[in-house]
Amino acid sequence: MRIAIATDQDCVSSHFGCAPAFTIVELDEGRMRGTFTIPNPGCQHAFWADLFSRNSIKHVIAGGMGANAQAVIRGCGVDVILGVQGRLEDVVKRFLDGSLTADTKPGALPGAARTPGGCSCPEAE
Fold it and tell me: Does the residue 30 lie in any domain?
């Protein structure tokens, strides 16, 4: 199974549309088997929906996501998990052991703070 995580360096990005990159994580038998990173091409919801469908992505994890992006991605049968913060490796471990829950406290970990006033990419929503 594969999951996609909106990432900012080694942490979950606070907003899907403004994430610098997306890390695709290959999971097998309860373990992380590998990752690859895709730079964010900008606010192109159809691109992500197509990519997630073609690569059998089952879950997308981010700090936040606009309603339009959620509708497009969920429309492809991909589960969207929001409100997540933390380092990539820790988030994957929590996903695998079933303890991944939304964290509503911005800035709980370095690199996980939400940007005051929202995303700087106006077309992200």
Answer: yes
